[in-house]
């Protein structure tokens, strides 16, 4: 029986010996932690497990999601389960998709000093400074696309000397893009109206009254779009 | 990083690729589908189920792990709860902060109701955020709610409740519009036409998506809207027991602050259970695609209060969970990867099943290929899987397609040294979805008055097998319906006294049915010790 290869990690400064094949999240549980904060989807989508760490002997401070990152020998880590970012309440219906909206809601983006700490901290490798630059210019569509994969983990905001809450700016840009800039889907509106007027009621009621065998027949002979 | 051994096997996949490119594997006949299901689907392994010994569904089969939680005592058995000390008083109490709960909160608020949303982890932590592939709706001119209806019924093997399917398919286009108006960024052509794909079992390409972040995109927009409207949310406060009034109607819940370990009383005129699925119960030892909190809490709470279950013995195993690398074992590989061309292959590099059968059939075929035909690929950790030929995607649709359509997946694999565009990936079924649950009607009502259920916790709309893209639809259709109905109904409700008497009744029933146990439920969070 082969020995599992073990490494030393330091959870909040305390040393634990864990198998080197585990993710940071798994290794915390291996060490005996029962996670409440800092654990969500365990799949890299929700941003709950943002982890900040330094490898002994290296200067670089690194950031990653605990559920998606393997441990390393000499890893000193802590987590950021919550960040008090600034979120402005707004009524999307009353906003316009331009720079004025950004000035009104998140004026701090214009205090960006270009240090790029946000980009360096991003657990999703996004060019955060770039998407803030797009927002400054009112180029909401590019801001939306560049920020799309953001999981709102909060690391960017925690590193920003200008007090920008980048992930809220990106979210606003995306909602404005989706609502006002993306092309309207005419047939969607038409179909919704048809249904509201009851034009599809009969076809459905007819199906609801069919026997299972009749439905099976319809199902097995239905045409499939290529 | 693939091992040297795996890289050798990948060469077999590359060798057969040119003859497979563009060739359609044949779909199964209804007979073949029945056979592969009976022989291989985990739902048919009788020894992993048992009959419930108490309650409204006494005598019905459910998975062993769920039976253990249902045949268990309340967490409040020896706790002194003072029901006269009310911490929260509201019109609509929503238990669960995922897609269904948030949709319900928005619609109840629209009706002018006071809403309290209590969630176990953070607001938005739910299976919703990981749904990747898309959401179905019959909005295109060449499509119709009738066609959608037939697809849903066929996918559910005609066991679905017709009124629920009617609600699902008729509300669908409106849900897409609702989301679009909130600013959800659906994939669209420049002229506004939605970019849609097939899912397993669809007759028309009606899966709408936002890259492979569809669920995340929907969740973060709806959550943002709820915050904008100042809807009250209390986090890290799961419900551990429902409260009933003197007449047996739902009247709130006992919440438990996970951090301060305090019990809090939330009094409400109506209650909506939106607690999601049960993946973290790891039925039959399967890994799961579900989020950390998916422990069937809502089923336990509702059942104890007298709600009926339906199809609780039908579990969906997503055909393609990650089989390698071990760090992300069980994580979801979205069906969309197959919708855009990747095909399942065995160890010889041969395709063995049509790539878009319904999930139960597809999963069964993969299990058969590994367990019965012995043509799976073994990984160093001992787990077996089959290939999914992802390099086909860019070959079929042009370079950059994979990166554009499933960027989240590409990133996930890249973090572990695998490029999906160059090499195939290894997959095996993973525990994914609870097809059944607490029985609802088209308004989300249950047989317990003033108790509603929406989303994965509910049962009936999908019959015994859900189609891809109908869960994101389900949570929003029924979340909105339950929220609107509860919001409206709460205007005329007066809550009489509050009671936890139903716990005593339940404990007596455990005794009367000879169930001797010290187990408590709901589980709240799974326990992982990773081999220690």
Automatic annotation (TrEMBL), chain A:
Key word Signal present: no
InterPro entries the UniProt entry points to: 2Fe-2S_ferredoxin-like_sf (IPR036010), 2Fe-2S_ferredoxin-type (IPR001041), 2Fe2S_fd_BS (IPR006058), 4Fe4S_Fe-S-bd (IPR017896), 4Fe4S_Fe_S_CS (IPR017900)
Keywords: Iron, Iron-sulfur, Metal-binding
4Fe-4S ferredoxin-type domain segment(s): 141-170
Organism superkingdom: Bacteria
Residue ranges constituting the 2Fe-2S ferredoxin-type domain according to the UniProt record: 5-83
Gene3D superfamilies listed in its UniProt record: 3.30.70.20
Protein name: Succinate dehydrogenase/fumarate reductase-like Fe-S protein
Organism: Acetoanaerobium pronyense
């Amino acid at each position: 029986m082969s020995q599992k290869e073990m490494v030393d990690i330091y959870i909040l400064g305390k040393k634990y010996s864990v198998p080197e094949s585990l993710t940071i999240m798994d290794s915390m549980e291996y060490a005996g932690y029962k996670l409440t904060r800092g654990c969500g989807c365990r799949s890299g989508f929700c941003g709950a497990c943002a982890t900040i760490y330094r490898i002994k002997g290296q200067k670089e401070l690194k950031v990653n999601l605990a559920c998606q990152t393997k441990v390393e020998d000499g890893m000193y880590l802590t987590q950021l389960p919550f960040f008090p970012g600034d979120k402005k309440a707004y009524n999307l219906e009353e906003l316009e998709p331009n720079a004025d909206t950004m000035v009104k809601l998140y004026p701090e983006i214009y205090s960006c000093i270009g240090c790029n700490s946000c980009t360096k901290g991003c657990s999703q490798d996004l060019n955060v400074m770039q998407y803030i630059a797009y927002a400054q210019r009112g180029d909401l569509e590019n801001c939306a696309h560049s920020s799309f994969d953001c999981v709102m983990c909060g690391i960017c905001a925690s590193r920003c000397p200008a007090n920008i809450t980048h992930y809220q700016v990106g979210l606003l840009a995306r909602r404005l893009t989706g609502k006002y800039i993306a092309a309207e889907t005419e047939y969607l509106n038409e179909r919704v109206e048809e249904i509201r007027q009851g034009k599809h009621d009969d076809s459905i009621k007819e199906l609801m009254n069919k026997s299972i065998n009749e439905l099976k027949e319809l199902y097995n002979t239905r045409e499939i779009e290529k | 990083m693939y091992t040297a051994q795996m890289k050798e096997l990948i060469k077999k996949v590359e060798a057969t690729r040119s003859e497979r490119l563009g060739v359609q594997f044949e779909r199964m006949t209804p007979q073949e589908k029945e056979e592969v299901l009976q022989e291989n689907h985990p739902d048919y392994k009788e020894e992993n189920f048992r009959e419930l010994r108490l309650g409204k569904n006494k005598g019905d089969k459910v998975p062993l792990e769920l039976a253990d939680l249902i045949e268990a005592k309340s967490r409040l058995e020896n706790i002194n709860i003072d029901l006269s000390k009310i911490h929260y008083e509201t019109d609509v109490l929503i238990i669960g902060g995922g897609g269904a709960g948030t949709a319900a909160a928005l619609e109840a608020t629209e009706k002018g109701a006071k809403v309290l949303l209590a969630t176990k982890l953070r607001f938005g932590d739910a299976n919703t955020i990981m749904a990747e592939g898309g959401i179905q709706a019959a909005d295109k001119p060449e499509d119709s709610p009738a066609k959608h209806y037939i697809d849903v019924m066929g996918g559910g093997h005609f066991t679905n409740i017709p009124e629920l399917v009617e609600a699902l398919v008729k509300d669908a286009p409106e849900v897409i519009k609702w989301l679009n108006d909130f600013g959800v960024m659906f994939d669209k052509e420049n002229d506004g036409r939605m970019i849609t794909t097939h899912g397993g079992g669809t007759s028309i390409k009606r899966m709408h998506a936002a890259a492979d972040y569809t669920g995340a995109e929907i969740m973060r927009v709806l959550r943002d809207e709820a915050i904008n409207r100042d809807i009250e949310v209390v986090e890290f406060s799961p419900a551990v027991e429902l409260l009933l009034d003197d007449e047996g109607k739902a009247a709130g819940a006992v919440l438990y602050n996970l951090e301060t370990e305090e019990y809090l009383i939330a009094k409400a005129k109506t209650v909506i259970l939106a607690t999601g699925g049960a993946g973290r119960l790891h039925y039959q030892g399967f890994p799961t695609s579900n989020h950390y909190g998916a422990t069937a809490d809502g089923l336990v709470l509702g059942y104890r209060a007298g709600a009926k279950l339906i199809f609780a013995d039908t579990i969906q195993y997503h055909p393609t969970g990650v089989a390698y690398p071990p760090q992300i074992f069980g994580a979801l590989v979205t069906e969309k990867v197959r919708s855009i061309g990747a095909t399942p292959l065995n160890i010889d590099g041969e395709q063995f099943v049509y790539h878009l059968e319904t999930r139960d059939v597809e999963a069964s075929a993969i299990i058969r290929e590994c367990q019965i035909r012995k043509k799976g690929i073994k990984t160093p950790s001992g787990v077996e899987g089959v290939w999914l030929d992802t390099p086909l995607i860019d070959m079929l649709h042009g370079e950059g397609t994979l990166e554009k359509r499933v960027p989240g997946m590409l990133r996930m694999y890249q973090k572990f040294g695998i490029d999906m565009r160059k090499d195939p990936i290894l997959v095996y079924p993973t525990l994914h979805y609870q097809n059944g649950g607490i029985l609802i009607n088209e308004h989300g009502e249950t047989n317990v008055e003033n108790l509603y259920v929406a989303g994965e916790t509910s049962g009936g709309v999908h019959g015994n097998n859900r189609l891809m893209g109908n869960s994101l639809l389900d949570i929003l259709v029924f979340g909105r319906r339950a929220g609107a109905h509860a919001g409206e109904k709460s205007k005329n409700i007066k809550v009489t006294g509050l009671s936890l008497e139903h716990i005593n009744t339940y404990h007596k029933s455990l005794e009367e049915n000879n169930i001797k146990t010290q187990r408590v439920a709901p589980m709240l969070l799974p326990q992982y010790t990773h081999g220690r």
